[in-house]
Amino acid sequence: MSTYRGRFAPSPTGPLHDGSLVAALASWLDARAHGGQWLVRIEDVDGPRCPPGTAEIILGQLSALGLHADEAPVWQSRRGDRYQAALDRLIAPGHAYGCACTRAEIAAAAGPRAKHGELVYPGTCRHGTQGRPVRAWRFRVDGRVDWHDRRLGAQTQDLETEVGDFVLKRADGLWAYQLAVVVDDAEQGITDVVRGEDLADNTPRQIALQRALHLPTPRYLHTPLVLAADGHKLSKQNGAAAIDVGDPPARLREASVALGLVPPSGSAGDVLAAAIAQWRSARP
Ligand code: GLU
């Protein structure tokens, strides 16, 4: 029996759009092609950015398209105690430390922005806050992470120079995506992460956290992004429209084409069955 367990982990900041449907379909196809299980996790840690009811809309869109999960969805907003326990496990051996810096202080002391757009934390509080109250908690990075992506091949990132000590718990008390995703992937027994390529440069941070927490590292596959007409990533932030699930076969065909598949005409079931077979030979 396959031990494959995959997941789709949307942040419910808006309904599914063409880009997030591609990520959902890719993770579903990879799970089905491997005879595995597919889970849905609602990544609503950043509550203020998640309008009420949006997660339910996403779950409805997935089920209208025939993408059914094998277990009930997990909601990150209900799992703060697990993230706190992981943070405590990181603090004790010194992998995490309290940081007293304000945004303005970091901006004044930091060098140029990292590739992923955030400031590289200058390490001010690495050796203590000098009596200032702790605002956020950070992970102490240590060197380079080499990793493998099933599509992109060998990857490497120097966490110290390219990312810096990153936030695990924010000054406003919210949990950071990096910590929540690592805790949940491990607790849900996820063996394979399939998601959009925009998240590839987060992966070394997640692998560093897995190692510090003595958790297994899943296999990773980052899928090509669907670009808007202006060449930018299609996202809720740049106004990508919610998909219309009134015509499931059409939506599934479009998403399949974005993944390089050649979908047949016919019902949603026909499109999905053909896509599983094609995916199996393209991404064994
Ligand atoms: N919640 C993240 C997003 O919607 C995806 C996280 C993941 O797949 O690891 O961008």
UniProtKB/TrEMBL annotation:
Give the residue interval(s) assigned to the motif 'HIGH' region: 10-20
How many cofactors are bound and how?
Binds 1 zinc ion per subunit.
Q: Where does ATP bind?
A: 236
Keywords for this entry?
Aminoacyl-tRNA synthetase, ATP-binding, Ligase, Metal-binding, Nucleotide-binding, Protein biosynthesis, Zinc
Q: Name one Pfam family in it.
A: tRNA-synt_1c
EC number(s) recorded for this UniProt protein: 6.1.1.-
Among InterPro entries, the record links this protein to: Glu-Q_tRNA(Asp)_Synthase (IPR022380), Glu/Gln-tRNA-synth (IPR000924), Glu/Gln-tRNA-synth_Ib_cat-dom (IPR020058), GluQ/Sye (IPR049940), Rossmann-like_a/b/a_fold (IPR014729)
Q: Which family does it belong to?
A: Belongs to the class-I aminoacyl-tRNA synthetase family. GluQ subfamily.
What is this protein called in UniProt?
Glutamyl-Q tRNA(Asp) synthetase
Query: Which taxonomic lineage does the organism of this UniProt entry have?
Result: Bacteria, Pseudomonadati, Pseudomonadota, Betaproteobacteria, Burkholderiales
* UniProt gene name: gluQ
